[in-house]
Design brief:
5 helices; 5-stranded mixed β-sheet; single chain; 3-stranded antiparallel β-sheet
Length: about 160
């Protein structure tokens, strides 16, 4: 079944691979990675953060990574950020937490950030909008499709 993120990538001419994993798979990047035979780092977590100014942004890190709060605040440009609630995520993206595609739903001006170290991976897995469906895509193509700002969000020894 072709989903809206697939149609979006097709329209842009961006190559990708559609993969499926059992819908009974427990939620989480590590579980998806195991089900598909990839490293946890390659399964990208798609997180929505919001600022005290009401701005929401998309942050993506590898499945085994966590964004450093200070780096994230610098990248977003706000000292007061928090993870968006499931209701806010649904309102913003149109999707439930767990398989949010990182492209096709963003309004103009919506900012998207991608962890710098993910650019070293051969391929990354992102949600296709439905649990059990994954899109495998080259990092540079993910940046193009999502108009991502590539920044260091996870390495304390390096600046944002």
């Amino acid at each position: 079944m072709k989903l809206p993120p697939h149609e979006f990538l097709d329209k842009l001419g961006i190559p990708y691979q559609r993969l499926a994993f059992p819908v009974a798979t427990e939620k989480g990047a590590a579980n998806v990675a195991r089900a598909l035979g990839y490293e946890e780092r390659q399964m990208v977590k798609t997180l929505i953060f919001e600022t005290d100014r009401g701005e929401r942004g998309l942050v993506r890190v590898g499945g085994d990574q966590h964004a450093i709060s200070g780096h994230l605040k610098k990248a977003i440009g706000s000292r007061n950020i928090r993870m968006a609630s499931p209701a806010a995520v649904r309102e913003t993206t149109g999707y439930e937490v767990g398989s949010i595609p990182p492209f096709h739903w963003q309004p103009d001006g919506f900012r998207s950030f991608l962890e710098l170290s993910l650019m070293d991976e051969e391929v990354l897995g992102v949600g296709a909008g439905r649990w059990g469906s994954e899109i495998m895509i080259a990092p540079a193509d993910l940046v193009k499709a999502s108009q991502a700002i590539v920044v260091n969000l996870t390495d304390k020894s390096r600046p944002v």
